[in-house]
Design brief:
- The protein has 406 residues and is of the alpha/beta class.
- It folds into 2 domains: 238 residues, Thiolase/Chalcone synthase (Peroxisomal Thiolase, Chain A, domain 1); 153 residues, Peroxisomal Thiolase, Chain A, domain 1.
- It contains 16 helices and 15 strands.
- The strands form 3 sheets. It has an 11-stranded mixed sheet, with helices on both faces. It has a two-stranded antiparallel ribbon with strand order 2-3.
- The chain starts with a strand and ends in a 5-residue tail after the last strand.
- 59% of the residues are buried.
């Protein structure tokens, strides 16, 4: 028998805040965290703005020697996980340690450590790199550090599916708990892409904006890179209720599909297929969806394709359901984006508040959606979906139910 799955804790670090509640306040208020970068390397090119997690101090979370063993993306993962566990009140028995899954998403892994190694090799021509370069750069480093920190011996792995990475991670963790493969899961993602080499690679893609992120706006110019991490604690609903855990929301469905179309150009049909699968998995129909947390990158192609996908998947409801994109606040954190947005969706359901899309000037007529912008929309929310659509045509969608609807 399939079990219902509760989200009992969340931890977040990003440009908008150094804790879950700080971040939620910024999202609810539509207070963008996109700023000019101070680093000299960022000022040498055409693009100078990003959503940097300036409030994150590794030494507030780790001893200096411990911090030195981890790339910044893994530090985000472990710090967000610590907050999520603290907020959930989950304690690990020996039995639960063996029955807890850890699934984390990241697109680039330890890009900062890779960059440092290249500086040594090609810049300084030292002929050697740091001896821990491989364990610091590997994409599974965040997941592995979490297992070692808490002695978790259950299934653990990393997912790397570009900008859908952490949504895929949360979805797979959800299925494991629902199907009894695991009795708890720590799932999310982290990313630290703000370093010279990776930044230049994104500049070359010509998909970034020079000013800010304006999802679905007629004058949108592109995405804005962000960094950070988010982790959700997933448990069987019945067990969470028995121990009196705080239940933020229920995760009730997951869908994924591939476009089989193009490496960088999105397809509305593939995205729509993932939305339909998530609804089918949750046993929901389009009329029941009260909010869509959009992938909403602020690029011309993505926003128009997503608007069309909502119409294809939800029919007339796709044009009426409230939609917002929180990337306008925390930037596009690539492999961590889905986890940050799943968190935003969970909090929207918990509080009955839809966070607004920041930075909108005027809605693009080609994006026929009911965009919530300017200020938050308050009201009873029963269910919501969170979309992630990645380069390579990889789509993932999560469905959630409000805690007061359980």
């Amino acid at each position: 028998m399939k079990r219902r799955v509760a989200v009992t804790g969340a931890g977040v670090i990003c440009a908008a805040g150094s804790t879950a509640e700080e971040t939620w306040t910024a999202l609810r208020d539509g207070r963008t965290a996109i700023r000019e970068l101070d680093e000299a390397w960022a000022r040498e090119g055409k693009y100078h703005v990003a959503a940097a997690a300036r409030g994150f101090d590794p030494l507030k979370h780790f001893e200096p020697r411990e911090a030195a063993l981890m790339d910044r993306f893994a530090q985000f993962a472990l710090a967000a996980c610590a907050e999520a566990l603290h907020n959930s009140g989950l304690a690990f028995s020996d039995e639960l340690k063996a029955r807890t899954a850890v699934v984390m998403g990241s697109s680039g892994g330890g890009q900062g450590s890779i960059d440092e190694g290249f500086v040594e090799l090609y810049g300084k021509r030292s002929g050697r790199v740091h001896p821990l370069t491989i364990p610091k750069t590997m994409t599974n480093a965040g997941a592995s550090h979490i297992t070692m920190k808490y002695g978790l011996t259950g299934p653990a792995w990393a997912v790397s599916t570009a900008c859908a990475s952490s949504t895929h991670a949360i979805g797979q963790a959800f299925w494991m708990v629902r199907d009894g493969v695991a009795d708890a899961a720590l799932a999310g993602g982290s990313e630290a892409p703000l370093n010279p080499g990776f930044w230049r690679a994104w500049e070359a893609m010509r998909v970034m904006a020079q000013d800010t992120c304006r999802p679905f706006s007629i004058d949108r110019k592109g995405m804005i890179l962000g960094e950070g991490g988010a982790v959700l604690v997933l448990e069987p609903l019945e067990r969470a209720q028995e121990r009196g855990a705080p239940i933020l929301a229920e995760i009730c469905g997951f869908g994924m599909a591939s476009d089989a179309h193009h490496l960088t150009q999105p397809s509305s049909t593939g995205a729509a297929a993932a939305i339909r699968m998530a609804l089918n998995d949750a046993g929901l129909n389009p009329a029941e969806i009260d909010y869509v947390n959009a992938h909403g990158t602020g690029t011309q192609a993505n926003d128009a394709a997503e608007a069309q996908a909502l119409s294809l998947a939800l029919g007339e409801r796709g044009r009426r359901v409230p939609v917002s994109s929180t990337k306008s606040v925390h930037g596009h954190a690539l492999g961590a984006a889905g986890a940050l947005e799943a968190f935003a969706t969970v909090m929207a359901l918990r509080d009955g508040v839809i966070p607004p899309t920041a930075n909108l000037t005027a809605l693009d007529p080609q994006c026929d959606v009911n965009l919530i912008a300017g200020s938050a929309l308050e009201g009873r929310l029963r269910t919501a979906i969170s979309n992630s659509f990645a380069f390579g045509g990889l789509n993932a969608v999560l469905a959630f139910r409000a805690p007061d609807a359980l």
